[in-house]
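#onboarding

Welcome to the new folks! Below is a worked example of what a typical request in this channel looks like: someone posts a single protein sequence, and someone else replies with the predicted structure as tokens. Don't worry about understanding the tokens yet, we'll cover that in week two.

Example request:
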Amino acid sequence: MKSSYSYRGTVVVLPPGRWIWQVPVLNPSETNNCIFVMNQISARTVSGPSLRKNILLTLLATIMKDPAYATLRTQEQLGYTVFTGTLKMLSVDYFYLLLQGSHYTPEVMMKRVVEFLHSYKDTLTDLVANGTAEHPSGEEWFSTTKQEAINLLLSRPESQVGLAEYYSDTSQSNWPFFNRKEYIITAGRTIKKEDLITFYYNYIIGDARQLIVQLHGAGYQTHQNTTVPHKRILDKNSIKKLK
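Example response:
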């Protein structure tokens, strides 16, 4: 996808499936490993379907933050850094999950991250159906969390640097500049709780477009025979040829 604005660049459209890119860290004494999962969602535009996806993406990344940390960091102690969030590169949106640590091999860390993403669908299904103790119905829980996601998308940074980045990002994207609030609110009204389950299956698991960057520290080697289901293991040359 080529940007039509002042900043020119190209984003590779990932083919459906899981792609693994194994990369050694640059520092030869670095012992930490890192797993960075990126799920490519779609190009951001002012259309209703695109805005709906972005709201669902923001909602999902927000509600998965604590469960990912509790499972991968606190319970399984796979690493000391765990994040979920959203990422935008040249108007293309991504969901990401990052895990960093030194006690387990990159292979083990990657396997558990993939298993967590698949198992979370059951947790999400239960939330949509039954809600939480604070919001004891699926409809109430979804309505509240959806509004939080919309508020987050509508919020602006308070710092001058943050505002500069915000306006630069908005002007270079395909989002409307002055009336984006109305677009987002209108799109948000059409989203139902069942849409979140469908979105999770289509863009996070299922036949999603997923790239796993596997950074391995000193003392670890790549695992060309990985047990994690995938389309292909990439290197710095083959990743440039993805079409």
